[in-house]
């Protein structure tokens, strides 16, 4: 599905980013594993190479303009081109809005919105020159919903959803597609807490959280030529949660037959 393509993935040392890197490699892509945690990034790239894939590790800070450009040039030097970008990974801070610290706000916005734009801008310059490419932002169902203490986080994710639409339209005729994946409750190493079976049954129509691999699978689809006519879209992957927010286990029943 991605054979011969080169994909750079930010926040790829763990969680959804790691799962996406491994999935891209499994489908034949060359992968640049980009993360601020260099040892973990190297571990992921080493694992891909040991399994017969091709990967490099790039130490990378999404809030650095210099690192955004270096990510692109390093990937091009290693593999000759850049065909796709998956942009994920950011600091989170949850505080009551009236007490939200300005420095915490600046960090979250700087990494999650400004940083994503810089990554996309640097990557798109390379893609536009070759006339093809795909960008995938990781957003969240928080782009459409409030979260306790999430003034900065929800603002970032809503902003990235808007950026997805803008770039998806702006670059469409020049061969570069931009889309987003919005995960719901997802099991990752960095999850703040585990969701109990009872909570999952009550909140999620499918009865369980997503795995990181399931989010990665949707990213791979959007990066591939199978999604060649999809741009400017945000695909929600949440087991039906946002489609039926008031779902309670057993509350939705088949109508009685006549």
Automatic annotation (TrEMBL):
Highest taxon, organism lineage: Bacteria
Q: What is this protein called?
A: Oxidoreductase
- Give the family, as the similarity comment puts it: Belongs to the short-chain dehydrogenases/reductases (SDR) family.
Give one GO biological process term.
Answer: fatty acid elongation
Pfam families, A to Z? adh_short_C2 (PF13561)
| Single GO term (MF) | oxidoreductase activity, acting on the CH-OH group of donors, NAD or NADP as acceptor
InterPro entries the UniProt entry points to: NAD(P)-bd_dom_sf, SDR_fam
Native source organism of the sequence: Steroidobacter agaridevorans
């Amino acid at each position: 599905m991605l054979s011969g393509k080169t994909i750079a993935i930010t926040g790829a040392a763990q969680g959804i980013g790691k799962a996406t890197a491994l999935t891209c490699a499994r489908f034949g892509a060359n992968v640049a594993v980009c993360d601020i945690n260099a040892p973990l990034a190297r571990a992921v790239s080493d694992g891909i190479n040991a399994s017969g894939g091709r990967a490099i590790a790039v130490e990378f800070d999404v809030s650095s303009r210099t690192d955004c450009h270096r990510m692109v040039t390093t990937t091009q030097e290693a593999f000759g081109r850049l065909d796709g970008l998956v942009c994920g990974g950011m600091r989170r801070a949850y505080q009551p809005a009236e007490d939200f610290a300005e420095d915490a706000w600046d960090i979250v916005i700087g990494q999650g919105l400004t940083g994503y734009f810089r990554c996309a801008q640097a990557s798109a310059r390379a893609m536009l020159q070759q006339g093809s490419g795909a960008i995938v932002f990781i957003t969240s169902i928080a782009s459409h919903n409030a979260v306790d203490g999430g003034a900065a986080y929800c603002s970032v994710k809503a902003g990235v959803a808007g950026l997805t639409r803008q770039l998806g339209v702006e670059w469409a005729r020049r061969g570069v597609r931009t889309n987003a994946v919005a995960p719901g409750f997802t099991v990752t190493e960095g999850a703040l807490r585990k969701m109990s079976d009872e909570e999952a049954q009550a909140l999620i129509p499918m009865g369980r959280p997503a795995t990181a691999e399931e989010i990665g699978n949707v990213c791979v689809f959007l990066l591939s030529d199978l999604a060649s006519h999809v741009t400017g879209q945000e695909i929600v992957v949440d087991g039906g949660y946002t489609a039926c927010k008031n779902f309670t286990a057993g509350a939705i029943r088949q109508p009685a037959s006549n």
